[in-house]
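Q: What does the assembled structure look like for these inputs?
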Amino acid sequence: MGVSADEPLKEFERMYFGMLLRYRPVLDGVRAAVYCKAPKDVGWLCDLMSDLGMVVVYAGFDNAQGKRSRVPEAGGSCRDLRTGYPESSAISDFKNDRVDLMVTESESLKVLDCRFVRPMDGFMGLHGLESAASDMSDAMVLPKSDGWRSEI
Amino acid sequence: MTFVRPDGLAGALMAAEGFTDVTTVLHGPGGCRFRYMRLASELSPKKTDPPCPRDRNFFFGVPRIPSTFLDEFDYIYGGSERLDGVLKEVSVEDGYIAVVESPAAALIGDDVGSAVSRNGMEDRVLVLRKHLVSMPMNEGFDEMCREAVRFVSPEGSETERGSVNLIGLPILCKDWEGSIEELTRILDLMGLKVNMSIGSGCSIADLNESTSAEFNVAVFPEFCQGTASMVEQGYVIPTVGSGFAPIGFGPVREWIRAVAEQTGKDPSKALEYVDGTDRKARRILKSDARRASTTHGMHYSINAGASVAYPLVRWFYEYLSMIPDSIEVPFGLPGTADLLESFLSERSLEGSFTAAPVGGDLMVSSGDYAHMCHLSGDYASYLDVGFPPGRGFNFRNGTILGATGAMNILDSLYGRRD
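A:
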């Protein structure tokens, strides 16, 4: 006989929404984009961003080598999934997209006029979700670019 | 984890040991001596002494910080005889004598001044009459430096234009010799000649020449408030500085500009030196930007004096995008602490000010404490920026001041671990 998952799910939801409340004040309304070089599933991240009140502008994937990934790219609740989207296009579209926070590992995008955070991989459970929310919240109080990246 | 902070007694003893021609006498039980005599051997600039005989009274085989070795008998009947004994034992070759009372000796109230007069040694012995236990370390250092200047009472000499004394640079800071070297280089590029660093590497006899300086340059301002105001009032030598120590490229530039403005000198060459070093650092970081950006969003705790904490927090935030979780400032001038507080509140980081350390990526503190925090598993790594220093010898210039100091800090953060 199976065991009901209702109670654990309710408990998880209670903790999840409690966690969101801690980070919403900083992240609510922030326009964010996710940009990855290789295809991957960032659906969980896009869903988290939406739950935090953030506007997910797009989830973009370069895949310059054109390889087929084991995990196909996915953006969850994100409506604008840009596949085969090179860095140069992300840079040229940046003004129109009006992104405040970029989740990316691309060094070329980290010099754009917005805050950035490294992508969070392999997160599991509430701890992983909170870690991602915390990283994005931290990024919003940091300077737009690391001082050492500029020229003197 | 509790940080057992060095107090005013440690500051005073190490200030006295910072003078090359002073033998510091600790009036107190032998147990109070051991840690300080070891530290003095490690830090102080005195020549390598000939082996000290094990049977030499009050020294017992170690030439640094002889003690009166008070015992239970002395606590009841007074320790004057011990004082007479130690003053006679310290020979003229040992130089001047600075007597500092341990907290235990202060309780019994021996009249050190009378012992000095009784032995006719007023011209060789300076006595620190303040009891500095439980006071911050910086106040002990400052008191001893002020006492030394008062003891010498240098006659005002003709001002040598463009010459400066460094003040507020204790031998307790990380690599004080390397720090003097770096600051001398920077000030030299501004056309300022460093006469001496009061309390670190100069002699009591040198203090006679200290009044020929046109300015005193404050390095760690909280370590020289009293000395600065005494010299300013007595000898009309103004103290210049920025209110914080020159740590990190941005704050170093600000320090240089402040000193240049107050001394009327041209900062361009010194700034070019800092820019050149900064350019090199940026080139190295950009060569592996992915690795360099590991500091982005790194959480750290810091426990340091205000004049160290403020520039470091600022530089870490602006240059490396690091976030302070906990900032503990055990001592410092109110002005510097205010600067730090307003910097944090402008960036919505005010919660970190005085918040207790809770663990994280990095602990920035004195070597011993930082290392312990790392070993306990609370912090992934640590950065040693103060006193007491970490274990082991330091052969390379390990200063945290100036452009060299900024490179050393980056080196510790990204590469080597001490």
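Residues 6-27 of chain A form the longest helix (22 residues).
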